[in-house]
Amino acid sequence: MSLPVSSARAAELSAHYALCESAVREKDRDSWLAALFAPAAQRRFLHAVHAFTLEITEARKKVTQPVLGEMRLRWWGDMIVSPGEDGSNAHPVADALLDTITQNRLDRQEFDAFLDTHVADFYDDPMESVAALLAYCSRAYVLPLRWCAQCLGATMRDETGAALEDAGVALGLTRILCRLPNHDGSRAFLPLDLLARHDVSLTDIQAGVDSPKLRAVLEELRNLARARFEAAKRVAPRVDEATRTALLATATAPLYLERMEAKSYHPFRPFFEPPAWRRQWRLWRAARVGL
User: Fold this and answer.
1) Burial bucket for residue 229 (CB in 10 Å: 0-12, 13-18, 19+)
2) What digits encode the pLDDT tens for the residues 140-181?
3) Percentages (nearest 5) of helix, strand, coil residues in the chain
4) Going by CATH, does the domain composed of 124-291 fall within 1.10.600.10?
5) What whole-number distance in Å separates Cα of residue 171 and Cα of residue 243?
6) pLDDT of 215-227, one tens digit each?
7) Please, what is the Cα angle at 19 between 14 and 20, to 5 degrees?
8) Where are the domains of the chain?
9) In b/e form, how buried is each residue of 80-108, taking b as 16+ CB within 10 angstroms?
């Protein structure tokens, strides 16, 4: 239930939510399309969560030193956990996010955990293991999915948590693989234990050297993403409608994995996303018959 606000404040919030939607529509089209299947009254909350996620995932591009990135994350953390007269109302995404957290009683400590996880984005320290990569995805991608489900009124049962966890990890692995051509530190997320098992050097990864051994590493990660997505797909029919609607944000992941299996695919060259019509059709189908 929305809290009473003055007409001026309502107009300000509405404008800030609209800016969130605009950012998501421009930079994360799949999430914006998925939100169209949510009830209109809750849609703005999803836009706020996704816009906040974009702010954090794009932070590395906006700073020149890791310490400045950490300071940016710390501002967000302080603003969320202890909101006050810090100018957050002047930041459209922060203002909409704070309202979303309040209206939906989201756990502010989870946002702190999310931000702590993204500190790794500012450094090129290698991911030690597949387990560490899965743990990163669990916090960086599952938590926003969980917040969206809560905003839609999902009942957090064991099956709900399992579906969100598997789908979020699948989405995280897929997006990390999609970003390998970028010089944004994503290559450091390829786990060292997996690289060692296939005799792939980290030096070659950073230099963008393709090889059959690297292809085997990427295939294993794609298979893991696909397996987690299929696990979510099996559980999805047993969760409530709100959770199924939140899961739609992950429905296009298999299309990206499929594109990576094309003969023309090169892991370190610009990645061409699936055609818009295929993604839209996939979302439409998932909204009606499930993931």
Assistant:
1) buried
2) 999 999 999 999 999 888 889 999 999 999 999 999 999 988
3) 75, 0, 25
4) yes
5) 16
6) 999 999 999 999 9
7) 95
8) 7-106, 124-291
9) beebeeeebbebbbbbbbbbbbebbebee
